[in-house]
């Protein structure tokens, strides 16, 4: 499906926010259909996502796994309106956002239905705001009185296992693992339907990595849907309900985490599974891995 009109449309009235009283539990939080994304112009134009179709149900955790340059971040950026689709559709919380103007995208992002956590928490946090102010800011912007905002961030702090004494510190005065947990808490403040985390643990040491992954796992009980992007299948395997494997801009395999790990079909997925030491699957020997690599280059 091509959108010659992937150019911005005129800004219409703000669509009603019906997400809280939509009676259909089956409505996906995110539905991507036949998505193509290009970068560059004219002779430099290059397709980085091709015919990507993926849907995320309410409360579901989906892992998107792929090697560097496979298009993972581009996919996240397309869902947030930071890059434009050249074909296909993106529907967020029931709203087709494919042809949204910049202004409509900004309003959608500000509404907080979808939140994004970067690999580097310093990109999510203002270095001049204390942890308390960082967490309260999205609520203050929505007109929530300061006292109420501060009361509402307390349980979030507990959810990400941070002590209250950190509230008065600046991001530069806490550890990298603590910063990432603040970034996760901040993403939850607006009670989003979907949180996209782009390599949230790859900059952390192994103790912090385990802790943040455990926190993400526990978030499943809150009903928020999670898209967890990683180059490391091992990181997402214990959390994701489903795993989607992105290879050179195409989703080559999507299935339940169990199926993808136990019965990988695509050679790239087989290579990923056989190279992940923490998955407790029978590791492929060198010859098998070489054969899989050869299959990928043909
Ligand atoms: N703004 C841009 N302009 C042109 N090309 C880009 C741009 N951003 C990314 N690319 C290219 O698009 C491809 C996909 O990049 P993307 O960042 O989505 O991959 P990724 O899977 O997230 O990689 P990584 O794991 O290294 O972050 C890469 O070849 C990259 O060089």
TrEMBL record:
Signal peptide boundaries: none
GO biological process: peptide transport; transmembrane transport
Record-annotated membrane-spanning stretches: none
SUPFAM superfamilies on file: P-loop containing nucleoside triphosphate hydrolases (SSF52540)
Domain of life assignment: Bacteria
GO MF, one annotated term: ATP hydrolysis activity
Family: Belongs to the ABC transporter superfamily.
Protein's name in the database: Oligopeptide/dipeptide transporter, C-terminal region
Organism whose genome encodes this protein: Actinacidiphila guanduensis
